[in-house]
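Reopening this one. Same input as before:
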Amino acid sequence: MLIRVPKGTQDILPEDISKWYYIEGIIKEILNKYGYKEIRTPFFEYTDLFVRGIGESTDIVTKEMFTFPDRKGRSLTLRPEGTAPVVRAYLENSMGRISKVIKLFYIGPMFRCEKPQAGRFRQFNQFGIEIIGTKSPATDAEVIITALDVYKKLGLKNLEILINSVGCKKCRFDYIQKLKKYLKDKKELLCSDCKMRYEKNPLRVFDCKKDGCQKIIEKAPLITENLCRECESHFAQVKSYLDDQKIVFHEDPRLVRGFDYYTKTAFEIISGELGAQNAIAGGGRYDDLVEELGGKPTPAVGFAAGIERMIIAIDQQKVKWPEEKGLDIFVAKVDEKNKDSAFKLLQTIRNAGLSADMDYSEGSLKSQMRVANKLGVKYTVIVGEEELSKNMVVLRNMQTKEQKEIKIDNLINELT
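Same output, byte for byte:
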């Protein structure tokens, strides 16, 4: 029986990998321009990092994490998101001593046990940025502008920015009391998940996508009407920075994101090309997370974006991918007794800095030329007994079909 790829995962085949290289190259180009440095964290962490960081009542922690014990019984989890591991690394490596403000980015796979659908996988790839050490509203605006710069460079259009403020500990406590009061006599109408959320973190009710719960929260009190003066001022400044840069956004007072660590600014960037799973980036401020994970109170802000969804959006908008660079040279042998000479010449060409390959099967010269055409090479070097006796090879231009004999000693100069 054939073993297949696990549900919710996918193979990225050679014909598609150039898209990933292209996107990752654009991401690194833009983030380097903004002064971010790359960080790479382990694919798995101790489970408590995500329980404490993301929140024990969130869907990710309660339903979606891949968690398993190690041989000593310690609970480990494949990382479902990138921010908590980055903050853990920031603290463990005392990165705050290097600079008061640290700007980091990451690219890599994340893991969530979700129901697979278009744009949603159990192993998926994200890139994200984190600015740790400043409470400036300008950095909230910067992370949004940075994401948009990446999408602009990739040619994506028709993107919508949704923005909200989810307040801070100071004003959120009073708001949650108001929300619980509103939901109290409607509790029995809530779904089973939202009944649990009501007890543990009522703000999570806004995450529910079920119609019954959506109707109930339509008339719920809004957190933006209950912000403290500091949060209100911060939100106004973020919007002002975006306005100054002519960034069009829409306020969504019910946007809370799926993590408990958010404070003040929360945002999503959505694409109309993706159907139900339309968010291609999301993030916000998380001023309490560093302290929650054992550090001193340290403000921070960031975002994460799914790469698979970016690829879908690019394809849907019919943005042209750059052409993949093919091999420079193909080495063909007239017959098998020339294979050693062909291989030696192949390595000489590679050592000169050119990309080159040959057909290692025992195919005819005609079949080798078909391989060369398929690879899209510029030139084919044909190695034959008659030419070798004169210390020569045949150089064929694959575009013009012209060919000529050339001395082996002059081949590299001719090619370069």
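So the earlier flakiness isn't reproducible anymore. For the record, The longest helix spans residues 14-33.
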